[in-house]
Amino acid sequence: MSARMQKSALAVLATYLCAPNLFAEFRVNMPEGVTRISEEVYSLHMLVFWVCVVIAIIVFGLMFYAIIKHRKSKGAVAKNFHESLKVEILWTAIPALIVFALGYRAFFTLEKMYDYDDSALTVEIVGYQWKWRYSYLMDDAAKEDSAQGTQFPVSFFSNLITPESQINNTEAKGEHYLLEVDEPLVLPVGSKVRFILTSADVIHSWWVPQLSVKKDAIPGIVNEAWTLIEKPGTYRGQCTELCGKGHGFMPVVVQAVSQTEFDQWMLGKQDEARQKASLNVKTWTMGELMETGERAYNTYCAACHQANGEGLPPAFPALKNSAIALGPVEAHLDIVINGSRVNPAMAAFGAQLSAAEIAAIITYERNAWGNNTGDMVTPQDVSNFGSSQ
Amino acid sequence: MTTLDHDHSDHGPAKGLSRWLFSTNHKDIGTLYLWFSLSMFFLGGLFAMVIRAELFQPGLQLVQPEFFNQMTTMHGLIMVFGAVMPAFVGLANWMIPLMIGAPDMALPRMNNLSFWILPFAFAMLVSTLFMEGGAPDFGWTFYAPLSTTYAPPSVTFFIFAVHIMGASSIMGAINVIATILNMRAPGMTWMKMPLFVWTWLITAFLLIAVMPVLAGVVTMMLMDIHFGTSFFSAAGGGSPLLFQHLFWFFGHPEVYIMILPAFGVVSAIIPAFARKKLFGYHSMVWATASIAVLSFIVWAHHMFTVGIPFAGELFFMASTMLIAVPTGVKVFNWVATMFHGSMTFETPMLFAIAFVVLFTIGGFSGLMLAVAPADFQYHDTYFVVAHFHYVLVPGAVFSIIAATYYWLPKWCGRMYNETLGKTHFWLSFIGVNVTFFPQHFIGLAGMPRRIPDYAVQFADFNMVSSIGAFFFGSSQLLFLFIIIHTIVAGKKAEAKPWEGAEGLEWTVPSPAPHHTFETPPDVK
Amino acid sequence: MSAEQTRQKNRNVVLYGIGTVVFMLLFVFFVLRPMYYLICEWTGITGSQFEASETKNLAIDENRAVKVQFLAMNNATMPWQFQPEQSQLTVKPGEVKQVYFYAKNNTTNDMVAQAVPSLSPFEATNYFIKTECFCFNSQPLAAGESVRMGLVFQIDPDLPAWVKTLSLTYTLFDITDSAGATAASFNRLALHNL
Predict the structure, then answer these.
(1) Domain B21-507 has CATH 2.40.50.140
(2) Any idea what job this protein has (chain C) (predicted)?
(3) At a CB cut-off of 8 Å and minimum separation 6, what does B146 contact?
(4) Which pLDDT tens digit goes with each residue over A158-188?
(5) Catalytic-role residue among B27, B252, B389, B410
(6) B218 at C interface, C-beta within 8 A
(7) Tens digits of residue pLDDT in B442-499
(8) Nearest residue on chain C to B208, alpha-carbon basis
(9) What's the fold here for domain C66-177?
């Protein structure tokens, strides 16, 4: 145990001793949540819990009664009974009835959860190592005409933004440590939202406790879930299926807003997508590329290749002083855009990021950490690389 | 294939290392299994300490996430396949022949083989920690494609290790079945067999039924990784979901493989110290059998969130909840056995009572988990971690410890120190609850399992849990000390050191001679 | 019971034991696994349908409109450009419709891809009749080559009334290394073997 850990253990203990009422603020139970379903699940959970408590009191009560009363040191003499068909039938039948009643109650909640009635909005959720991608599917008839080609669909990655420094304890942890993302999933309150979930690599699981939605995202298979949020707010969850080393670092953040705010946000998002597309054709300076590149690198690349470019060999090779970053630009473009042919951990980012982001990342990788090649890769280079082949 | 050797009844064991290497004696092999299991218990425990140390506080302090994942994987594999299962096989080896009045296990040479391949399997598994790319890091449930396409190269060694463990378990199970079917002393009828023998017989059937399923699953993985098939890869027409169905078809019976013999142990100890016959012997046998049968039709309750259709969820919810009934019968029977007994509370009894209470708590959380709609909230959180540790640690492990204290006088002819034993019990009891009870809270509050770092609101209970774990872990060193102390310096034990104990094992001297029941005893 | 008798009985247990083990191993490969696919096919779970159906002459239900969403996504290691030409279509049950997906291999290598379909909600799988689909076969593309890939489908009017929106997702996998040979055929073969 390090000295720091000891110190903070003492600090925690001291806090509790000085302010015992802090215990009251501990979260020790399932949240009731903000949907009808989550409330129902909560009450079901509490029901089963109290049934268990009552059974426990009866059974353990009898047992401890026997332990106290029927001990040899108190002169207890063993009675000679070891069978009773009546009693045995009784204590088979009663639990069976209790279990049946609980199952009956659970049936109705389950039925409601499986009620895939038509919903106004469909969101596609895709799990990646180690981030989520949310895409809003154009869903109403008005948009159908313009949907031809849908130039600016609203689709984005949601990445963890907790800085390395907080994770490595060099900086104090924020309020939403590990549960904060760059772009939350924005949803309207009061209308049913349908989720379709899948994965691009390994199995992930999308969970928001306040919505009582947990569904696995499985490569090659699409799952369906839905929610109807009743209260605006920010709801946080996490990936709940072991998906590799970043499993603990891919939070889910849902921001529920009113329908009007949602519509506005959607328009803004479409504008943003339009602007983002224009970034691919604008003329960039080296400084802009490096700045954007550093940000994008830390978001999409640093989990494996590390912020200092030293990687975690052998699974995640170093970029600092590496053959890729110092060698020909084409090979560098190729591996970032098309992924590695031998290592599945290196995804094909051409299908995930914009040309501008890729250009910035490559420029950054070729000039950061003493890799000073001086190479500047523009979005046009990235697009040309794609079509010149 | 193998034969019984009766011609060396006049001499004792061979001397030195060859006694252990070439032993075909059920007692020696049982001893080997038990020591092996204890060493694996400490190794797996060490990994657990690494996990809890990292989770002591939010943030990354000691290990990196990729190593953390290796630790959770190795902890699970070693505890399940290295500690709990071999411990029960060891108990079976020692006790079943003594309990049914047989001179040895039915297949002594296979017995030797089934033990001696185990150290190789675990040496191979543990060596992966030092390989390039690290040890398996995909959890003990090794879901594809994380364990196939995305696995470290060491996965191949993991697969072979699992194959060897499976072969060992299957041989052990065949041996147990042959012994119980064919080697019972005259008069030892089915319904006179001690419950430990019954539970092991049923466990052995479960083992031969499902270990090949595990072998099949890892073989499919091996073929996917090396021979270009796609059993579990969607790209080639396979399905990652198929993996989970097959795995849990093995996995759920496996859970009962780890708990049924524990039921047998507790059913031997409670009557002994309550000085009263076990209540409801017949219903105990039937309950065990029905739990075993039900275990084959509940597997998808581990998969409620993978997208099972409504009817499927209902079926698996109902069948799972049904298991609560026979399990309840067992608990009621134990309580009824204690009722109006004449109880004393030596160390084995303390562990057995703790088993009844804490295993039942694990059973309650199991019932909660069975409720499909609520499981969407519990699934893959610390609530599940708390649940299965409650059934495995104060469940299976406590029963093994209880068995050790109960039968240690028979094994080594010496009594353990009662004060030390009771100290060990209270330290373990407190440790286990401080470790695992808070995990219910952090799970319900929303902490997923298998994460190396967590949000700040989970910090307090994680720290409590870690302190409990260090406490529990270190108090097991006392267990090791007690065992060695007993062997070296314990007081001489009588043939039947427990006043209320019943069974053939107490009719032979303590320590049990190298060869027992060469002439079958008379069973009344 | 004589020692010889016991020995014989033990031998029998070993034989039965080994027999059970072998049986269970075969059971995993040749019963459990096909059963999984059989149940998937029967209920539509996973929404994956790889086999072509005949176009059926179905009465068109003029009073009903089902929204079909088309989604294309790449497995993480797949670098191709891949998208539906149309992201959504309103279909009357019984109608035969054709849509196209566009794929382009932007890499310098010749590659082979396999599209894996998954329909949601899965209850609709057996009412979504694909008569022609690029997912029935793997799709090779030379470096820089592009292709329009067709899908011809109709919706069975028996589709449960509660289904109003269908999402058909194709995930594109890179199968260059195993293409043509073992991977795809191994499983397809087994699928037909049911």
Answers:
(1) no
(2) Exerts its effect at some terminal stage of cytochrome c oxidase synthesis, probably by being involved in the insertion of the copper B into subunit I.
(3) A202, A203, A242, A243, A244, B138, B139
(4) 999 998 899 999 999 999 999 999 999 999 9
(5) B252
(6) no
(7) 999 999 999 999 999 999 999 999 999 999 999 999 999 999 999 999 999 999 999 9
(8) C21
(9) Ctag/Cox11 (Pfam 04442) (2.60.370)
